[in-house]
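Fig. S4 source data, part A: sequence.
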Amino acid sequence: MAPVPRGGTVAVTGAAGFIGGWVVRDLLDRGYRVRACVRDENDAVKTGFLKAMPGYVSGRLTLHSADLNNPGCFDDIFKGCHGVAHVSHVNDYGNAEYIEMVCDHIIKSVNASDSITRVVVTSSIAAVVSERNFDEMVKRPVIYEDRYPDRGDPRLSGYSQSKQQAEHTFAEAAEQSGMWDSITCCPADNVGPIQSAHQGDRGPWQGLMKRMLQGECNPAVHGYRPWHTVDVRDTAAVQIAILESVMVKNGERYIAYNAERIDVEEVCARIDRLLPELGFATPDTTEDLDEAGLARRTERRAVYFGTDLRNDRTRALGITYRDLNDSLRDMAESLISVGEVEPVLRPGFSLNRP
């Protein structure tokens, strides 16, 4: 199907979220008209940052209340749109019947629009590789878009199962329609600046750095899995590149990943190196592990180090990824300034609060 026209109208579900908010901002910066779908457009805590964007004042950005659990909630919003960036989270990952229902609500509204030609579905690298299956990562260390974890594997998380299910459901519906296509963006671990305080409690990556700033850093979080990072602003850029591309095809997937991975304790330590003026009191990350614990940590990190997560397809779309240091610095500063996090500082340092 055709890409969205430059300056066209794009609906964004989950527009108040970490990724969705940047998709909205980037679309506006590129001249599009945006219909931002949120749970409650009158929730100032979650939508205030959207209403502060210049496009809202001019009318190029409009906000719409839409609970994706309700059938028909997107019917009026999608009318006249050229594309949809479906970023919204759902309420119950792992519930196949519920996921099918939510997808059906969105798909019916897309079909009824008579104008949408492309939908970008936000999935995750969790739908590409299962971090709970170490044998799979050892046997198949090259990780790229054509790979799926075994949906029948009992170790597979409900989150991964639901993301895969949504990908397939949208692609099959688009093929049946013949009027639009569905392309998937699979982001790695999103880092970078928050735009609203409520986003600092989500994540998990923003939430993990928030706890770091408050003096807590656990190297064992997520079973010693490193962060496979991507700046949230680059994830947004990938989604818009997919909306604009004449090369993408229905059912394709694109991994958003900056090809940089970092262990949790290194993220924590790097805050002070990137922001020496802050005086961050880096917490002690030394672990009291016995011989078995040390062996387990070493083994797991070796498995992850041996994998090769690829971003070839997104680079072919023209994406240039930000440096990880810039992303981590911007995330820390935004958590403090926008999220009003009170970091633990060394003696003699203080924040320059207005």
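Fig. S4 source data, part B ends here. The chain has a mean pLDDT of 94.
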